[in-house]
Specification:
By secondary structure, the chain is α+β, with helices and mostly antiparallel strands. It is about 25% helix and about 30% strand. The longest helix is centred in the first third of the chain and has 17 residues. The structure holds flavin-adenine dinucleotide.
């Protein structure tokens, strides 16, 4: 098939990789100036793959999409032409003495929502010490044994570079799309099928306009993130600090980088990180990882998570056009399974992304 994709973010790149690997002719349109311009939210994300921890805000559907996606990432990453860090060493939830009330409420919620084999396991101080000697200070720790993380920057590059014979149209924002057709400001292109994966860019009218489809009624949720270069600080898995006022996570990333994130603010403001977020997130991260004090903040980033009214993902298919949106704060966790479901809706119910 001859396929057009609007948007070269996480969903667009995964689709392009899957479809081009299966021999389809694929063209992708995006306003970013090049394949390596970090415009999409996919570049900014920390890359936590946390089906259980995300049950705090997600439902069983998000959980199931996450579990399926972990298996799909394990299939996709070895097929990419460049190395992409992907680890499944579990993740930790930690809380300081005095914050156990809020922490235990969250852990009880996760226990109620997660199946038996995915339950959070309480760890002793000596367990924590042997797993993560650099972590100091928390009095309570739980292990989520089957969680993981992916290096999002490596994966964004590798997905695009590994998709064979794709025609990339950079600096070409899609102005509108209809079944079988993508319009830019200078031309119209006809395809057998069109996919809309523009994230926040899929909304071309005022939010909540009655004529918008669910996938277009998208809002951006601001997230701020920090990269700290901290040679010698060894962390083996992502760690979330459960705090009554904010959520902070720390994700190790090669080479010698610790990603600290992320604020979640109901705003489409893309301006630089705020003093408040900097102080709160870095102070909280330092309170459990004191060795990072001498690290260097080498990068800060701000982006918008694409969220629909109910904060859940959605696929809308009509003849010649499929819209995918609302991946919100768990895009890396659920994208492979969401893309697989979108392709089932186009090809057949037994389509599998592991054929790619
Ligand atoms: C700070 C932060 C931390 C996060 N951490 C995690 C995490 O740890 N784990 C996790 O699972 N998820 C995380 N996420 C969420 C994840 O990044 C998103 O869910 C995911 O990127 C959404 O993918 P998408 O393809 O729908 O949108 P995007 O990745 O934003 O891609 C949208 C693409 O559409 C393009 N576009 C926009 N307008 C147009 C137009 N008019 N024409 C053509 N193209 C257009 C954009 O340029 C972009 O390339 C995080 C997000 C943020 C911001």
């Amino acid at each position: 098939m001859n396929i057009g994709i609007a948007g070269a973010g996480l969903s667009g790149r995964l689709l392009a990789f899957a479809l081009a690997s299966q021999g389809h002719q694929v063209s992708v349109f995006d306003p970013a100036p090049s394949m390596y311009s970090p415009v999409a939210a996919g570049w900014t994300a920390a890359g936590m793959l946390s089906p259980v921890a995300e049950l705090e805000s997600g439902d069983d559907n998000v959980f199931q999409l996450g579990v399926r996606s972990l298996a799909l990432w394990a299939h996709i990453v070895p097929r990419l032409q460049q190395e992409v860090e992907l680890h499944f060493n579990g993740s930790l939830l930690v809380a300081h003495r005095g914050d156990e009330g809020a922490a235990e409420r969250l852990v009880s919620l996760l226990k109620a929502k997660a199946p038996q084999q995915e339950q959070p396991q309480s760890l002793s101080r000596s367990d924590l010490n042997s797993m993560e000697p650099a972590i100091q200070g928390p009095s309570h720790t739980w292990l989520l044994a089957n969680e993981g993380q992916i290096h999002t920057v490596q994966a964004m590059r590798a997905l695009a570079e590994s998709a064979p014979n794709v025609q990339w149209h950079w600096s070409q924002p899609v102005t509108s799309l209809t079944p079988h057709t993508i319009h830019t400001s200078t031309s119209s292109h006809t395809f057998d099928w069109v996919f809309d994966t523009r994230g926040v860019g899929a909304r071309d009218k005022a939010i909540h306009d009655a004529s918008l489809l669910a996938c277009q009624n998208v809002r951006g949720v601001r997230g701020e993130i920090f990269w700290v270069k901290a040679p010698g600080v060894k962390l083996n898995r992502p760690v979330r600090l459960l705090h009554p006022r904010y959520r902070v996570y720390i994700v190790p990333r090669a080479p010698d980088i610790i990603v600290v994130g992320a604020s979640e603010i109901e705003s489409e403001d893309r301006s630089a990180v705020s003093v408040r977020t900097t102080v709160e997130l870095l102070a909280a991260a330092h309170s459990i990882l004191p060795e990072m004090a001498e690290g260097r903040i080498i990068h800060t980033d701000v982006n918008l998570r694409p969220a629909l009214v109910d904060n859940f993902p959605r696929i809308e298919t009509e003849d010649g056009l499929t819209r995918i949106n609302g991946l919100f704060r768990h895009g890396w966790l659920i994208a492979p399974a969401v893309i697989e479901n979108a392709l089932k809706s186009v090809f057949s119910s037994d389509y599998s992304l592991s054929q790619a």
